Amino acid sequence: MKKKLISAVLCAVMAASLMAGCGLSGGSSAGSEPAAEAEPAAEAEAPAEGEAAAEAPAGDVITLTMAEVNPLENTVCGAMDLKFKEEVERLSGGTIQIDLQGGGVLGVEADILDGMTMNSGTVDICRISAFALTSYGTKKSVLLSLPYTFADRNHFWNFANSELGQEFLNESEELGLGVKGLYFGEEGFRNFFTVESKPITTPDDMKNMKIRVSNDPIMQKMVSSLGATSSPVSMSEIYSSMQNGTIDGAEQPTVNYAGNSFQEVGPNLTLDGHTLGAMMTIITDEAWNSLTEEQQGWILEAGKTASDYCREVSEEKENEVLAQLKEQGINVIEVEDKTAWQAACKPIADEYATGDLAEVYQQLLDLAD
After folding, report:
1. Is 190-275+324-365 in CATH node 3.40.50.80?
2. Which of 141, 185, 173 is nearest to 313 (CA)?
């Protein structure tokens, strides 16, 4: 947590104003206990929606550093991050500033999470993959990566806005990992795409194919369950590996598929929607606990607005990209019935959703419309 302190010179210049009732509260130094919440003046109230944030009085400004591993422009996660920043600064009247650093300039996700959980003080807030914290001890979040869990987007958002979703957000804090979940987002369903000669219509079509997936046990087991072989190709090598025949296909969210021009080497896009690109935004306990109850309320309200905005932007962007792909002549294969796909991957859910998690997973499934 970094707070900008008013300099001695500025204090002297503004002394008269302070005595006249401006009501500036002193910012605490790094590592100290948070200042007591001051009685809010009428002009310090959060502006109504659509109004510009009032200029924050010097000395009251709190700056929270927020990390994003993806670019802020032309990405769903970047759009969600920017909406969160905008809303925090608006609701706080500019007294809380979000220093949003995109494009991975603060490191890759694993390094950022290491720093946040170890209380390094470098990053206060970060947008992560919703199941990334499983590597740090959370149990429930692994359920979000099980294939064919979410029937559709509404199913995911029913979960994200439910009491069960809040339990998932609270898990890291309850386990004492040093971070707290704030809100969910998503960047669309992940789908398979393949070289021109090997379209996928049913799971049977995947037999003996070489499919690139991330280095994740669940994703690798999913490909094997569908009859294919997972191939350890890096993200940057997908295009060339499909071009030279090293792999037959891969999988990505639709927007990423088009954004990386994978349709040039993999013109068959099968909309099986095996997993959803679920996201979570977290804050360090240190940053959270240094805020007043009112300030925490602004953070949560801004998170709800950003989450709702993500829902709107993600679906709009995906529909726009799908329309463009169809116009380009890409073979977009709809999967109306996922029964065979779900049946093939059921052993994966049986393996991971065991014990207490079996009941939680059923609650998750029951949230489908």
Report:
1. no
2. 185
- Would you say residue 46 has pLDDT above 60? no
Q: Tell me: pLDDT of 4 over 50.
A: no
Q: Name the 3-class secondary structure at 102.
A: coil
Phi first, then psi, for residue 214 (nearest 5°) are -65, 165
Q: What angle is formed at CA 281 by the lines to CA 81 and CA 93, rounded to 5 degrees?
A: 55
User: Hey, what are 296's tokens?
Assistant: 């925490």
Count Cβ neighbours within 10 Å for each residue of 61-95 and write b for 16 or more, e otherwise: bbebbbbbbbebeebbbbbbbbbbbbbbbbbbbbb
Q: Which residue has the tokens 């950003």?
A: 306
Measure Cα distances from 334 to 175, 232, 327 in Å.
Answer: 41, 27, 16
Distance of CA 266 to the CA centre of its chain: 27
Asked if 179 and 283 touch (Cβ cutoff 8 Å), the reply is yes
Same fold for the domain at 2-6+47-188+277-317 and the one at 190-275+324-365?
Answer: yes
| CA angle 221–277–272, rounded 5-degree value | 60
2-6+47-188+277-317: what fold?
Answer: D-Maltodextrin-Binding Protein; domain 2 (3.40.190)
SS (H, E, C) 22-39: HCCCCCCCCCCCCCCCCC
Q: Would you place residue 51 in the very low, low, confident or very high pLDDT band (cuts 50, 70, 90)? A: low
- Over residues 53-94, the pLDDT tens digits come to 445 455 689 999 999 998 898 889 999 999 999 999 999 999
- Does the reported pTM lie above 0.90? no
End-to-end CA distance of the chain: 41
